[in-house]
């Protein structure tokens, strides 16, 4: 018999991979490659975010973040500026080119989110959000413990 906690983890992992696949296909029409939309949404939501902070926010190592930032900067979707408070840090800002397509990207994310919960009542959506926030508290604790022990 399968462990119920293990089944939850497998379902979350499968859902995450499926959603990422759908998004990657959907956003390829904007010239975006695997996972780049994730960086772009966080930069639009947090203009001036540092590369270090976006790495922590997305739980992605600094090298992967640097490569992704370099690629999306080359596409003219973001600009990097040296931080005025920390000369080692780079701050990331959306460009007009990104802002011109961002509402379309955001609409596709919202539409997919709605499709994934289309048979849910409002109270079920609220309950799922509450449970996932509780789950993420535990995940974040374990992530921090693991990261601190490397």
TrEMBL record:
Matches recorded under InterPro entries: HTH_MarR-typ, WH-like_DNA-bd_sf, WH_DNA-bd_sf
Keyword Transcription listed: yes
Sequence ranges assigned to domain HTH marR-type in this UniProt record: 5-137
Sorted UniProt keywords: DNA-binding, Transcription, Transcription regulation
Name of the protein: MarR family transcriptional regulator
Organism annotation: Fusibacter ferrireducens
Upper lineage: Bacteria, Bacillati, Bacillota, Clostridia, Eubacteriales
């Amino acid at each position: 018999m399968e462990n119920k906690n293990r089944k939850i983890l497998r379902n979350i992992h499968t859902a995450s991979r499926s959603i990422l696949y759908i998004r990657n296909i959907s956003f390829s029409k904007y010239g975006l490659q695997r996972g780049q939309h994730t960086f772009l949404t966080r930069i639009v939501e947090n203009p001036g975010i540092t590369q270090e902070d976006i790495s922590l926010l997305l739980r992605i190592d600094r090298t992967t973040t640097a490569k992704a930032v370099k690629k999306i900067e080359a596409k003219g979707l973001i600009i990097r500026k040296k931080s005025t408070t920390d000369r080692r840090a780079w701050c990331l800002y959306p460009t007009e080119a990104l802002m011109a397509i961002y509402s379309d990207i955001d609409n596709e994310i919202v539409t997919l989110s709605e499709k994934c919960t289309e048979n849910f009542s409002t109270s079920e959506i609220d309950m799922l959000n509450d449970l996932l926030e509780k789950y993420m508290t535990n995940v974040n604790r374990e992530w921090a413990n693991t990261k601190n022990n490397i």
